[in-house]
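Incident log entry.

Two folding requests arrived from the same account within the same minute. Monitoring flagged them as a possible duplicate submission, but the sequences differ. Recording both here for audit purposes.

Request one:
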Amino acid sequence: MAGLCRRLSTSIGAGIDVRTIWAREAQRAVGPLRTRLLDVSRAVNRGETLTDALALTDDFFPSLFRELITVGEQSGQLEVVLSQLADHYQGQLTVRRTFLASIAWPLIELVATLVVIGFFIWLMGALNLKSDVFGFGLVGTRGLVIYVSFLAVLGVAGWLLLQAIARGMVWTQPVQRLTLQLPVLGKALQTLALSRLAWSMQMTMNTGMDVRRSLKLSLNSTGSARFIDQIPVIDGAIVRGNSIHEAFSAAGGYPLDFLDTLAVGEESGQVVESMGRLARQYQEQARMAIVALAMAAAWLIWAAIAAVIIVIIFRVFSFYVGAINNVLPR
């Protein structure tokens, strides 16, 4: 998304024909993205608007991207909108890379530990030692296959859960709400969500989008069940004629600096500028939150490694003591 938005913004700014732009993007892409971009390219060639062309791809592209493309196209600010979207997606990519880099070494250690366990399970069978040293009931090649299969199922289940949370599936919302209550993790996730909320409000309001539509889209962009749940409350307050500040205050759960910035922005008629400044502040806090989040994840991984090693030590010790007792005279 970061690369796509950046190239589209540059090409539009250079005055390249929109049909040529999308044809090139379709040629460049691979896999499912290529199929969707070909659909967009064909629709644009037929003379359809970019909004209608993107509608043919269903929900393949993020809703924030589709909505802002529509507003940018209607307001004649498509180049600016795409440039800001590129910055937004690049920022998300940087955050992800920072987090993964921070937990890379603990993950390597965890994988190494699991590999060593698997090796010993196989070795017991290769040496024709039928004793179950670890006490898992796993020995030899058959035991190794069961062990690897279990880890694979566990890994796939975890990956699917993360994907479901990222897509905001309804059944994952209780999990999201629970994580926000956890120390360190909850604070970091809330800061990241507020950063996206402030940025989205600045972007959508700066394009002249209707306030209700802007707030719905901005709250959805957080990807957090806690903020998405508040859409009906905030939208209802706006319909009743309340200010944005009053609507968010009624929903509850927002920090004072967020609410104060909204109040000052509305009073001065500079909500967009106020949200822009707040977004930059939250982005800096989000970077610090990612560091805290990475440290928490690293400690959890190390704790898991320690737990596995301790269990193995006790299992091996029990096996060793049992072997000695078996050879001692009764």
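Request two (distinct sequence, not a duplicate):
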Amino acid sequence: MIKKLSFLKKIKARYLLVLTLLFLVISLFALRANYEQMVSLRNALYSADKNNGNVSLALNNLQKYVTSHMNTNLSTGNGSIYPPIQLEYTYQRLQDQLSQQASSLNTNIYTQAEDYCQAKIPTGFSGRYRISCVEQYINTHGLESQQIPKSLYEFDFVTPLWSPDFAGWMTLTTAIFGVLFIFRILINFWDSYFNSK
């Protein structure tokens, strides 16, 4: 195996080390840029959620970016909430809308109950009989506000370990030069060990 790598003897180890370190620095900047772009897209999503903007477009942009770029994990540490994307304002707006619809429909049902009970129980009778009639009508015909499952407005996206973007290619190049540097050091060690005998 060492003999197959003898072409590395022509390259000085320090050059390989310099190239490894250079590409490592470039990789770190590229990975940082990926993370910053994810943060920007996540903030745009939170802003759209809070201000009733185009949440689906912002969510789609974030999902596409996170799933196709490395170092874009949405979690912010061990103590972070899970799932990391929770569209609380969109969820609350829809929940409030359903509550208002149920309340509006129940107001109409209350009016229907009064009309029904007035026709069923003539005015000569005591009003207390009508109250129980109205309550019974509302209980059988009234609507309760529906609860939307919160999980429909909570998201997490999987970040790839490696992606074919600038950061990915620079990381791969760093790894290749790092491995070549290690092999070059091993060849030096191998030669000095056997040449000393």
